[in-house]
# Entry
Amino acid sequence: MNEILLQMAVQKKYPEFRLQAELGVAQDEFFALVGPSGCGKTTLLRLISGLERPDSGRIILGGEDITKLPPSRRRIGMVFQDYALFPHLSVYQNIEYGLKVQRLPGKERRKRVSELLALFHLEELASRKIDRLSGGERQRVALARSLAPRPFLLLLDEPFSSLDFLLRQQLAGELKQWQKELGATFIFVSHQQEEALALSDRLAVMKNGRVVQIADPRTIYEEPVDSFVASFFGEANLLPVRVTMDPGAKLAIAFEDTRLAHFEYTPEPPGQKCTPGDYWLVVRPEEIVLETESRSGISAEVLNLDYLGYLVRLDLLIGATRMRALVGKEHAFLRPEERVSCRFRLNKPRFIPRNGYTG
Ligand SMILES: Nc1ncnc2c1ncn2[C@@H]1O[C@H](COP(=O)(O)OP(=O)(O)OP(=O)(O)O)[C@@H](O)[C@H]1O
# Structure
């Protein structure tokens, strides 16, 4: 990881909400903030940008304590959900705006605006007024404008929320490319878990004003710290199991409903350490495999089937637990109440102690 650019530990209290967050973001990193509505993502961005002051704590940017600096002196750019562009100005003038405020000489200003117009494919729209642009074009202008003053850090709060699905996907892909090309540091708030996983180098998952886990997308998905994170990203089936230690360092895992099945698993370093006890076993829908040849697996009843085109989504009843499975479309002919045999394809079983939050 590169050098740390932003380091913060802050507290902020509102009458009915308390934020207590600590995080570090590296230079050139694409960092995402995710979590359910009201968990404090926007408040955290506002604290970083200076639009809000923390009650206590410090924010260090590029080695400088910026906790008490006004927003204009922080060298932090922001792209909001509504873009906040100037409708009466042209694309060119919008991008140039921050450079005029910075009193950059005319020649340098023109050079920078031209570079950004080229990077964001806006050259032909340079003289157009904002109110005559499409949503996607406005989005690009907003990004170019906020990057023009070369901020240390760019904060993006749900920048695609007003765009339709296809455009959103296209721009999200481009955003990542621009970020890498520019060597810029982004903190990105998204409501779309999949988007955040696809774009970011690392994510912070928040809940009730606290950061619950910070890790790269793969660790977040495959090694969630608790059942909240497991359920927040993609669907997670949480199966109650009891783990007992076998001689030979094997774990014997018995499903709560012991009529179902036992299986054995040898934890391998650096795999998760697991002591005997009661756990939730995290099984992702794509980790459930239907057996067509043999019926030696775990018996399940089909409750519901949704045909998704490329895959089939099944609701299965395994013992007393309802589980979601994603299987190949060769299973599209299954019907409710049919019995199937399945097994779990768990490369790295993930156990969450059962005394915690259960989502
Ligand atoms: N100025 C304020 N005064 C009082 N309460 C506030 C203020 N700003 C935010 N809050 C409260 O703080 C909590 C967190 O709000 P915030 O906007 O940070 O959440 P969020 O995670 O960005 O939510 P969303 O995903 O819905 O945008 C909410 O309960 C909100 O009502």
